[in-house]
Write a structure and sequence with these properties.
alpha+beta, Arc Repressor Mutant, subunit A, 3-stranded antiparallel beta sheet, two-stranded antiparallel ribbon, 7 strands, 34% helix
Length: 296
């Protein structure tokens, strides 16, 4: 019989819940670095998966962590538009509340309140617990958490979903080819502007819309590559914003030019002169009118 090693440290036990199909939960005991999050957030069917993940991330942060759009977009692969939309969802359903305040120095900052239990808002009532039976977990009530004020961030492009990319009114294969080539060659201006093929296909109609409005390819390239941020991580998101926000207006219709007076050959001397209809040039008219004036 093997001798029992009393000095060996006991391993953390895993609790396995068997299921007939689907997911099988394997839960290891975690003595530290874990967050208790309600199923009313993780199983909320009214929220997008981006909003659920962002809400869980915010609840796992310590007091004083920055949760502005710029900081969150810099930590994850989602761009600023998706982060801004997810924050609006969480605010609409009562999981966060953003308050604009003015500091003694006169600077506008945003203070964010994070709720582990959603608060009812003006348009939404607080989420109700899910009805499916779930295992009981120790969940002591947590007090309201105040996240450190962060510098005010610019408002998102719109209050709803991200604006649609512009498209040409009369697409042509030649213009589309020029637009796709322009996007693919942006990496020659800056290596960080290396785009995936699917992003080139998605953005090419927007570039074609610029070209249709009279913008030269070099002017489009300068608008897309000028003053790039030093911490550029999502080039496709940046180009999407610039192609939408900086779209030039259509060129005004050109005023019709007055046609020049046509050239005529003089019936007297055959010299060319400008006149609306055939006839005599000025010299021949004066020559014929001279005898008449003398007789008078």
């Amino acid at each position: 019989m093997a001798e029992q090693q009393l000095s060996a440290r006991p391993r953390a036990r895993s609790v396995v819940r068997r299921s007939a199909g689907g997911v099988t939960q394997i839960s290891d005991y975690q003595p530290k670095r874990y967050t208790i999050i309600g199923d009313h957030l993780t199983q909320n069917r009214d929220l997008s998966l981006t909003a659920i993940g962002l809400g869980a991330h915010i609840q796992s942060l310590p007091d004083g962590a920055a949760v502005d759009i710029r900081t969150l977009a810099g930590k994850f692969t989602e761009g600023r538009d998706r982060v801004a939309a997810a924050l609006r969802e969480l605010e609409e359903y009562g999981y966060i509340k953003r308050i604009r305040e003015r500091t003694p120095e006169g600077r506008i900052v945003t203070r964010t309140l994070s709720y582990n239990v959603p608060r009812a808002t003006g348009t939404r009532r607080a989420a109700e617990p899910v009805t499916e039976p779930v295992a009981e977990r120790p969940a002591p009530p947590a007090p309201e958490r105040v996240v450190r004020p962060a510098a005010a961030t610019p408002p998102p492009p719109s209050s709803g979903t991200a604006p649609a990319l512009p498209e040409p009114n009369a697409p042509t294969p030649q213009r589309h080819h020029t637009a796709a080539a322009l996007l693919a060659e942006l990496r020659r201006d800056d290596a960080r502007l290396l785009l995936a093929e699917r992003d080139v296909r998605r953005l090419a109609p927007a570039v074609a819309a610029w070209l249709e409005r009279g913008a030269a390819p070099d002017a489009v390239r300068r608008a897309l590559t000028a003053s790039l941020p030093p911490d550029l991580r999502h080039p496709a998101a940046l180009l999407t914003h610039r192609l939408t926000a900086l779209l030039p207006p259509p060129l005004p219709a050109a005023e019709p030019r007055s046609r020049p007076v046509p050239l005529q050959n003089c019936d007297g001397c055959d010299r060319a002169f400008r006149a609306p209809s055939p006839g005599f040039c000025r010299d021949c008219r004066e020559t014929e009118q001279a005898p008449a004036r003398a007789a008078a």
